User: Which sequence fits this backbone?
C-alpha cells in the first residue's frame, strides 16, 4: 500500500513510500546534511537511491544535477513519483539499473560527489536474511559490497571528488581500510549517538579521491536529549 | 631543575618531573583510564614510559606486574625516583632500553596488555623538530614509528591480549590500517573533545591480538565544560 508523507521537517517536500518496503530513515536525512556540498559542484550521484529521500534533501541545498541509480523497479517507481510530485524533473535524473552495470559504461571521472546509504549487514548467513526480498536487497550486502562501492566511486569520481556515506560504526575499520586501498582518503568523520552515555550507532564518513592523509573527527551528534526529544541539532536538519 | 608534584588528582601519588623535559600530560591520565584492565591480567607493559605517569595510575587499578621501558636515561631516572617515592618497587619494573632492543629478545607472547603514549608527529621535516633533544625524542616518530609499535606489540602480546594507545585523531586511518595489518584488530575507540562544538583532539584506541572484526565507538569525552572547568567525567579520573 502506497502512502504520501512529508519528508520529515522538509515541509515543502513530499515523498511516496510503500508500507511494505524499506522506508527512508534518519540516515537519509543525516547523510546529505553531513556531505560537503560545494557551490562549484555540477554533478552529484546517489548510489542506491531507494525512494529518493537523499536526492530530495539535496535539491534544497544545491543547484547541481542530481542522479540517482536504483536497482529495484518498485523503489525506482516510487522515487519517480516523488520527483514528479515535487516538480524536480529538471534537476533529478533517475536510472533504474544495477549500479555495477551503470559504472561499467564509458562514464568515468564525471561526478563531483557521490553519496551512498548502502546495505548495512554483511551478507553472511541465511538467518540474517529478511524474508521480504525488497528489504533483503536494501539491507544486505547481497547485490553490492563495500568494496564494489569503493571501486565504482573511484571510477566515477573526478580527481578530488568526494564520496560520503552512512554506515554502522562497527564497520569503521573495514570502511576506512577499503577507502584508502581504493585511493579515496578518509577526510571527515562524524559519529551519531542515540543519546548521552551510549555508544555511537551511526557513522558518517567522507573521503576524497587522491586526497592527502589526515582526517577530522567532527563534534558528536546526539539524536535524542534526556527527555526523549530530538536535539536542537537534529531539529535543525528538519527545518 | 627537578620538581615533585602530585599526579593530578591522585592525591596519594607523587611524580618527579624535570621542568626542561616533556612533562606528563592529560593523555597519560586518559590512557590508563580507557584501557581494559582485567582482573586476570598478570603482566602489563608500558612502551615509552617517560617519567612513569601511566604506570603510577595503573598501580591504583590492578595488582598485575607493571613493566615500563624507557629509552632516555634522564626520564628513566625520574621514573625510578617516582617509583621509589611511592613505594611501588614491588609492582613496577623499569627498564632503561630501546623498546626495539627489548622486543628483539626471547620474550614473546608474554603480556596481557600493552599501553603506549607514543611520539605524536611523523618525523618529516627539520623545521618540525624541537631543538630540545629530549622533547624531540618524546614527540616525534624518530626512534619509534607507529609500525614499529604494532610489530613489537604483536610479538609481545599473548593471544587475545590488548594494545591500547593514545594519539592524535588525524592519524586515525594510519593507526587502524596498521593495527589490522599486524593482526591487532581495533575493538574500542573513544574520541576526546576539548569542549562542545569542537573537533576531537585526542584519540584513544584499543585493539585485540587476533580479535574478530567489529569495533565500538564509546561515548565522547569532553575535557572542559562551557565555563572552562574540567567536566565531571574528567574530574572523576582525578579522584
Assistant:
Amino acid at each position: 500500500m502506497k502512502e504520501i508523507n512529508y519528508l520529515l521537517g522538509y515541509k515543502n517536500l513530499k515523498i511516496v513510500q510503500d508500507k511494505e518496503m524499506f522506508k527512508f530513515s534518519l540516515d537519509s536525512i543525516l547523510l546529505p546534511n553531513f556531505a560537503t556540498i560545494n557551490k562549484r559542484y555540477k554533478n552529484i550521484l546517489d548510489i542506491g537511491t531507494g525512494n529518493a529521500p537523499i536526492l530530495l534533501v539535496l535539491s534544497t541545498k544545491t543547484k547541481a544535477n542530481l542522479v540517482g541509480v536504483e536497482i529495484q523497479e518498485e523503489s525506482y517507481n516510487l522515487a519517480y513519483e516523488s520527483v514528479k510530485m515535487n516538480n524536480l524533473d529538471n534537476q533529478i535524473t533517475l536510472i533504474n539499473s544495477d549500479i555495477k552495470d551503470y559504472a561499467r559504461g564509458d562514464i568515468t571521472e564525471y561526478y563531483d560527489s557521490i553519496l551512498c546509504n548502502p546495505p548495512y549487514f554483511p551478507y553472511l548467513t541465511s538467518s540474517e536474511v529478511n524474508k521480504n526480498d525488497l528489504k533483503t536487497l536494501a539491507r544486505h550486502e547481497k547485490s553490492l559490497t563495500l568494496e564494489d562501492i569503493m571501486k565504482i566511486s573511484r571510477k566515477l569520481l573526478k580527481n578530488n571528488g568526494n564520496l560520503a556515506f552512512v554506515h554502522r560504526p562497527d564497520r569503521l575499520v573495514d570502511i576506512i581500510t577499503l577507502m584508502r586501498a581504493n585511493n579515496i582518503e578518509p577526510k571527515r568523520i562524524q559519529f551519531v549517538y542515540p543519546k548521552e552515555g551510549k555508544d555511537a550507532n551511526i557513522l558518517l564518513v567522507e573521503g576524497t579521491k587522491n586526497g592527502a592523509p589526515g582526517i577530522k573527527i567532527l563534534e558528536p551528534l546526539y539524536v535524542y536529549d534526556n527527555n526523549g526529544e530530538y536535539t536542537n541539532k537534529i531539529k535543525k536538519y528538519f527545518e
Summary: Chain A is about 30% helix and 30% strand. The first strand of chain A starts at residue 2 and ends at 7.
